[in-house]
User: Fold this.
Amino acid sequence: MKISLNSIKDIIGQSTNFDFKATNFDQAVINKIANQLGAIESLEDIGDKYQGIVIAKIISVKKHPNADRLHVCLIDDGGAIGHVERTSEGLVQVICGANNVREGLVVAWLPPGSIVPESFNKQPFQLTTKDIRGVLSNGMLASPKELALSDDHQGILEITDDDISVGQDFALRFNLKNDQVIDIENKMFTHRPDCFGYIGIARELVAIFGQPFTSPDWYKLEDLPEISAEESLSFKVINQVPGLAKRFLAIAIKDVSVQASPVWLQVELAKVGLKPINNIVDITNYIMILSGQPLHAYDYDKVRNFSDGIDVSLLVRQADLGEKLKLLNGKEINLQKDSLVIASNKQAIGLAGIMGGQDTAIDNNTKNIILECATFDMSLVRRASMTYGIFSDASTRFTKNQSPLQNKPIIYRAVSLITDVAGGQVASQLIDDNHLTSSLLSNQSNAPVISISSDFINLRLGLKLTAQAISQILSNAEFKVELQDDQSLLIKTAFWRTDITIAEDIVEEVGRLYGLDKIPLNLPIRPINPKLLDKDLKVKDIIRTKLAGLGANEILTYSFVSGDLLEKCHQQKDQAFEISNAIRPELQY
Assistant:
C-alpha cells in the first residue's frame, strides 16, 4: 500500500490545524506509521526526481532548418532559470520533435542541468545545452513518459490545469516538492479496508497524534444530495446473486469528453504506481486511492452493442463453464463456473471485483458511460484472483471486506469529479440494488453498539485511563461514543469499519491509538500454587506409556496425501477432498 506523504498532509490539513513545519511532521508521521499503524517496506524521496523542472509556455514554433521532424521552439519561462541563452524578448530556444508541439501550449521544461525523471532511479540522464543538427537546444520539453507519469511518449505533456503561470516550479505546483512515497506492508491492513485509502490513513494518523479528525464533507452518509436527471440513457441492473453482491450502484452519464487527465490527477496516480489512462478511468482510480473503494466505468454504447434486444442491462451473475472473457490487460480467460461476472444480457463484460472487460472499455471515442460502485463477496473475489492469477488494485481492496455503506457517497463524489473534469451530464437515476439488512442501513454501522467499561479496558491493557480519556481517544478516530456514567461507555462504530464486532476489538483500538509504547511492561500478577494434574491427561499418558512398552509405535498422520497412496490403501479418491492449487502433486488430496 503506497501513500504520498504530501497528499496525506493535504487531507490532514483540511481536517486539523497541524503546523507541519513546527512539528517536523514528515519524520513524525513515518515514525507513527511504523510504530502504531503498519510496517514500512520502503521510502522514496519522489520529489528529488523533479528538481529544476519549470512550467513554460511555447511562444513560437518553426521547422528545424536541417531536420524534417524537428521544430525550433521559443518558450517563456518567466525568467525563472538563469545561465541560459535568451533572445532579446527573454525567450529560451528548445528543439522539440513531438507531433503535438504548437504555439500557446503550456509545457514542462527540463532546463540544462536537470535530470530526466524517468531515468532518475536507473542511469540518471542530465540535460545540457546541446547542438542538434546545427541549432542549439536548451534542455528539452518533456513527455509524460520522460516525466515518469505514464508510458505515453507520443507527444509532450500538455498542461491544462487551472491557476498555472509560467515560471512556476513544476514540483511545487503539483505537490511533488519534498514529497515521500511510503510503502506500507499490505498484510498490516488485512482487516482494515479503510486504511487502503488516503482518508483512512489520515484519520488514523491524526487520532494517533491525539487530535480529532473530521472526514471530508462528501465522505459522509448524512445530507447526501439526491441526483435528479432526465432519463435519457436508460438501463437495468439485474442482480441474480444478491448473496454474493450485496450492493450494486450504477448511474449513466452522457456527453463526456474522454481525453488525458489534468496533470494534478496524473501526478496523484503516478506517485503510487498507477498509470494514467484517460480522465474517466483516472477518476475512478483516484477515488479508490482516496477511499479504498474500487469503481468501474463502462462504455454505455458498447454495452448496448453487446446486448440482445433494445434493453441495456448490467447483470451480476455467476459465469457459465467455458464462457470466455477478454480483460482490460489483454488476457483472455476461460471462466470457471463459480466466478462472479458482470454481464450484458448477451455475454460477460467484466470479472467482478477484479478487472473489467476489453469489449466495454472506455476509450477516446466514448461519449456515454455507466459508472458502477459495488460490494462483492470477498472470498469469491480472492478465489477468482488465485484461479486466474490476476491481482489487481481492485481485488486487493475487495478481498479486505470493504464496507457497503460507503458506496453511495463514493459514487456521488465520482459523478461530481467526472462532470467537472470530463464534462457531461447525469443521464439516469441512480440505481441502488441493495440487499443489506434494514438494521445495518438504519444504524449506519456494520456492527451493533458495543457497551464497555473503562475497567474492562484498563484491566487488559494495564492502564488507568478514565472513561472520559477513552472517549476522547476513540472520538478522535470518529467513533461515536456516549458516556453512560464515570465507568461505562456505549460505542458505535463508524460506517467504514468492518472489523469492530466485540468489546475486545475496542480494547485493541484504545491500546493502539493511545500508544503501545505507553503500556507498562509489567508481568501480570498470578498465583504460584501448582495446578492439579488433569485426570484425562493422566490416563492418556498411562495408556501411551503401556502401549509403547508393548512394542506399539505412535504415528502422527498428515492431512495432505497423494492419490497413489489412497489407491494403495484401497480408498476411494472421490471421497477425499481434491485440492485444486496443491503445492505438490503428492499432496493433492
In short: The chain has a mean pLDDT of 93. The chain has five domains: 2-45+179-208, 49-173, 236-436, 450-518, 530-589. The chain has 16 helices and 25 strands.
